[in-house]
Amino acid sequence: MQIGTLSERTGLSRDSLRFYEKRGLLQARRSANGYRDYPEEAVQWLGYVRTAQQLGFTLAEIAADLPLLAQGQDAGPALRDALARKLADVDARIAGLQSLRNELATRLAETPETGASCPLRSAT
User: Fold this and answer.
1) pTM for this structure?
2) Which residue range is the domain that position 33 belongs to?
3) What whole-number distance in Å separates Cα of residue 9 and Cα of residue 5?
4) What is the CATH number of the domain that holds 15?
5) How many domains does the chain have?
6) Do residues 21 and 28 touch, judged by C-beta distance below 8 A?
7) What are the backbone angles phi and psi of residue 30, rounded to the nearest 5°?
8) What is the sign of the dihedral through the CA atoms of 45, 49, 4 and 28?
9) Reduced 3-state DSSP string for 54-103
10) From 103's CA, which of 18, 71, 85, 117 has a CA 20 to 30 Å away?
């Protein structure tokens, strides 16, 4: 299918499709007239890419896993590993943000509404 049809079926702009192709996330054959010709499976692959991005995966992470799925191999174990790693990353970021929140709350509580005390000085 041509790029316009793929764009309509996926809701992605032609520029996005070209970008994904440039990054190796999407492959097109070139017809005799030079037009891109995408396989029917491209719609499904792009759905995977969009879902993975919504789950917080970077394009580099997606590119690393996409060949496995594209080759039709059993992706279950690899997908479970990737999801587990991403979940651990998210948990670590949440813990870091919670720690930051606690520090900000402490400094806010220690800061009088008026006065010269500066809550941004080192606690040491």
Assistant:
1) 0.69
2) 3-110
3) 6
4) 1.10.1660.10
5) 1
6) yes
7) -105, 125
8) negative
9) HCCCCHHHHHHHHHHHHCCCCCHHHHHHHHHHHHHHHHHHHHHHHHHHHH
10) 85
